[in-house]
Design goal:
Shape: elongated
Order of helices and strands: HHHEEHEHEHEEEHEHEEEHH
CATH class of the largest domain: Alpha Beta
InterPro entries: LysR_HTH_N (IPR000847), LysR_subst-bd (IPR005119), WH-like_DNA-bd_sf (IPR036388), WH_DNA-bd_sf (IPR036390)
Distance between the termini: 69 Å
CATH architecture of the largest domain: 3-Layer(aba) Sandwich
Keywords: DNA-binding, Transcription, Transcription regulation
Strand content: 15-25%
GO molecular function: DNA binding; DNA-binding transcription factor activity
CATH topology of the largest domain: D-Maltodextrin-Binding Protein, domain 2
Structural class: alpha/beta
Mean pLDDT: 90
Low-confidence stretches: none
Protein name: Molybdate transport repressor ModE-like protein
Number of helices: 10
Family: Belongs to the LysR transcriptional regulatory family.
């Protein structure tokens, strides 16, 4: 074992405390660990450095000789560290990047992209059940970055002080119970779902809700929304054969559920990100958009239904 400054600090602590137990508390070590370390140091010098007894630990002659030199060396090292800190550049405290997220898979891709693009940044993610609050949070600078989504005839405009950029347009697919007769089709006509019970998220915003109802109306029916539930419950209900539901095309395969495209993609939405113009994202915005777009299309290949659909149709070009 090579002698190190920390070993000299151990000797000084034992001498100053007068006992191994008190020195262990000072050094925030367990007593057995400190005793074992002292034993290794003594083996290095070939003789005991402390006489230990009921009255505590007292330096031997060798220990006293070593302590005199240890104290001067420890003091010199401490002064060296203090002086070096004067010349070290000051630490720059960086504020965390607060990210508000719509409940889409883009938030997962964004978290991955930010870790790669800004590895030293502190990222705080907050998922909102609806996107209604996110524009206001950006405008008030309570968040620096957001994932958003909008729909045909319900497009979002950036609030003052914020910038929005589109990442991709994604079709909405239908999730059917695996044993459903329509599950055998490669694509499903929306009008063929007129007699189905639907499960949709309870807090669905007015924009996507009106868009869904209006689209169904143009296909000749009013949807029978039998379940207003969150995503997790909706997935279970579909798998149990009770209803159908809308799914993002990028969703991974789900056990018991057949995820099928809708013919001609009558339902679609757009992924956006928004950031505060004077905030920390602005300097990295171009790189972030490029990296996130790449991540989105790479991750899209992990969804069998979407991958097959893209091979047949290619990406959607417009909302």
């Amino acid at each position: 074992m090579d002698l190190q400054v920390r070993h000299l600090r151990v000797l000084c602590a034992i001498a100053d405390s007068g006992s191994i137990s008190r020195a262990a508390a000072t050094l925030k070590m367990s007593q057995p660990a400190l005793t074992a370390q002292l034993r290794r140091i003594e083996q290095m010098f070939g003789d005991p450095l402390f006489d230990r007894g009921p009255e505590g630990a007292r330096p031997t002659r060798l220990g006293e000789w070593l302590l005199v030199r240890s104290r001067s060396l420890v003091s010199a090292v401490d002064e060296l560290e203090r002086t070096a800190r004067r010349y070290a550049p000051p630490k720059v405290e960086t504020a965390p990047i607060r990210v508000g997220c719509a409940p889409t898979r883009l938030r997962i891709y964004l978290a991955k992209t930010l870790r790669q693009l800004l590895p030293g940044a502190e990222i705080r993610l907050l998922t909102e059940q609806t996107i209604d609050t996110l524009p206001g949070l950006l405008e008030s600078e309570r968040i620096e970055l957001a994932t958003l989504d909008d729909y045909p005839d319900h497009r979002l405009s950036a609030p003052p002080g914020a910038v929005y950029t589109a990442i991709a347009v994604e079709p909405l697919f239908v999730g059917l119970p695996a044993g459903h007769p329509l599950a055998a089709r490669e694509e499903v006509e929306l009008r063929d779902l007129a007699e189905e019970d639907w499960a949709l998220p309870t807090p669905l915003e007015s924009g996507p809700r009106e868009y869904f109802w209006n689209t169904c109306a143009t296909h000749g029916f009013a949807p029978r929304v039998a379940y207003g539930v969150n995503l997790e419950v909706g997935v279970d209900l579909v798998a149990e054969g009770r209803c159908v539901s809308l799914f993002q095309a990028t969703v991974p395969a789900r056990e018991g559920i057949a995820i099928r495209p809708l013919t001609d993609s009558p339902l679609r939405f757009r992924h956006l990100i928004g950031w505060t113009a004077p905030g920390p994202i602005t300097a990295h915005a171009d790189d972030l958009v490029r990296a996130l777009t790449t991540t989105y299309w790479t991750e899209s290949q992990r969804s069998p239904a979407y991958r097959n659909w893209l091979e047949r149709h290619g990406p959607l070009k417009r909302l």
